[in-house]
Fold F-box domain-containing protein.
Amino acid sequence: MQHVSKRNINPHAVGEEVISLMSIRNGGPELNFTETLPTEMSVRIFGELDMRSLCRASVTCKRWNVIIEGSDNLWRSHCLSTLAVCHREVDGDRSDGLSWKVTLVRNYQKSCVKRRWLKGKYSNILCAEDLPPNSMCPLDVETWGEILEAELER
């Protein structure tokens, strides 16, 4: 007795579907989500990325770059984390009318360096030669004062 499937599947049709999907994927026009979704939805998706991933996504293709560079709010949340460490710098840049992205780019490295110093990462450093690479950048007098106070409290 021959087993009859309850599904009515034509194996040739399934094969043709797979072949047509593969041809679209391998040589035909590929659509990415930014071409099919409204821009607002794409911005929400990009908004879930961390800063490094957002920067990488912005150089993926022209369409992604236009969306990411055109949405200042994508950079705002990342800039606010920098604001937690570099109040004066971020507030100054924003009052000068700079965008969130420009403000972030101008202050990100400084905020990372300052955060590491304030957490005591360099407390055991005895001389400048012992400093790891990328552990220094220009800091203002007030920032060095904060770092000195944190070191003296340790």
